[in-house]
């Protein structure tokens, strides 16, 4: 015998006891009389005692059935209330969303628009986890995440919000001192700063329109877990770095950084709203997905705009 309680049998029993009729209980539940009867019989067999005295004209609870009926009815009502509350929760955006976002992107482009989201959805709260480390959505209990990537895990349900380019950059004063590299191999031996949370390994992969490819492993005096930490050293004219456009574009506009190797671009990635594949998206998550899509699909940081 299964150790799992026979919740269905208890619910059927509670409804028959309430209606005092198998036929009336079946109509109320939208089931056949045979299904209700089998469920009650199964419960009686499991419990080892009869719950009803049945005759052709009359149905009544046994003494054992009377001792169980009140608890079974309460269990039925509690389950009904729980299901109704859950259905309402899934239909109306409310409750807590645990959202994981890369730190630099989250501080620049997500945190500033959250007040508008809260005004639109006053019953939704957000636990914003800012980290460049890739989180395990299921294992760490996140409802959703923003991911910036060229390739995503196939286990995720993803909505692409916009493309995200990455650039090899340097300050004008660096180029005045060391010259402008014309080919990826010209980076070998130069001070090229590294990023610890690259998806596969800290390698710069370049692809020309012709299909030619080059890979360079950056080697420099600084390696970081957050791309913003690269900016001061680059602006000081001491090194070359790879930066995403949502960080670099402001420095391109004011001339404090320049794009290198324009004939050898890095693969373009994307900004994605992702959720676990096995989880149905409740209304609160759908509301956040729609909000972020509308606000981040045509960003001002695209370069060139």
Give me a quick take on this structure:
The protein has 305 residues and is α/β, with parallel strands linked by helices. The protein has helices at residues 7-19, 22-29, 33-47, 63-91, 103-110, 114-120, 172-178, 231-235, 245-253, 283-296; strands at 52-54, 59-61, 95-101, 124-130, 144-149, 156-164, 166-170, 194-195, 204-207, 213-216, 223-224, 241-244, 258-260, 269-276.
The CATH homologous superfamily of the largest domain is named: Periplasmic binding protein-like II
The total tally of domains equals 3
Chain-averaged pLDDT: 90
CATH topology of the largest domain: D-Maltodextrin-Binding Protein, domain 2
| Class computed from helices, strands and strand pairing | alpha/beta
CATH class of the largest domain: Alpha Beta
Helical residue percent? Answer: 25-40%
Beta-strand percentage?
Answer: 15-25%
Elements, N to C (H/E): HHHEEHEHHEEEEHEEEEHEHEEH
> Which strands sit side by side, in order, in the main sheet?
4-3-5-14-6
Largest sheet: 5 strands, mixed
Catalogue the unreliable spans: none
- Count of DSSP H/I helices: 10
What is the name of the CATH architecture of the largest domain?
3-Layer(aba) Sandwich
C-alpha geometry: elongated
Radius of gyration: 31 Å
End-to-end distance: 67 Å
The count of β-strands is 14
């Amino acid at each position: 015998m299964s150790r799992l309680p026979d919740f269905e049998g208890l619910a059927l029993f509670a409804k028959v006891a309430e209606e005092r009729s198998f036929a009336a209980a079946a109509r109320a539940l939208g089931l056949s009389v045979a299904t209700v009867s089998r469920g009650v019989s199964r419960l009686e067999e499991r419990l080892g005692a009869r719950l009803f005295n049945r005759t052709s004209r009359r149905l009544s609870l046994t003494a054992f059935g009377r001792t169980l009926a009140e608890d079974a009815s309460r269990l039925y009502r509690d389950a009904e209330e729980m299901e109704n509350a859950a259905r309402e929760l899934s239909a109306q955006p409310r409750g807590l969303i645990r959202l994981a976002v890369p730190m630099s992107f989250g501080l620049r482009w997500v945190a500033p628009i959250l007040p508008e989201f809260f005004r639109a959805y006053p019953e939704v709260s957000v636990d914003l986890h800012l980290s460049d480390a890739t989180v395990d959505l299921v294992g760490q209990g996140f409802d959703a995440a923003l991911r910036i990537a060229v390739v995503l895990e196939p286990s995720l349900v993803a909505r692409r919000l916009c493309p995200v380019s990455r650039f090899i950059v340097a300050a004008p004063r660096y180029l005045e001192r060391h010259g402008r590299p014309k080919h990826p191999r010209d980076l070998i031996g130069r001070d090229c700063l590294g990023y610890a949370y690259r998806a596969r390994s800290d390698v710069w992969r370049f692809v020309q329109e012709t299909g030619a490819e080059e890979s360079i492993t950056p080697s420099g005096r600084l390696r970081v877990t957050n791309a913003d930490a690269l900016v001061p050293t680059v602006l000081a004219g001491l090194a070359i770095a790879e930066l995403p456009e949502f960080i670099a574009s402001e420095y391109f506009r004011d001339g404090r950084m320049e794009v290198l190797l324009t004939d050898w671009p890095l693969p373009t990635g994307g900004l994605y709203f992702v959720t676990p594949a096995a989880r149905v998206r409740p209304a609160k998550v759908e509301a956040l997905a729609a909000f972020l899509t509308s606000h981040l699909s045509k960003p001002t940081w695209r370069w060139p705009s």
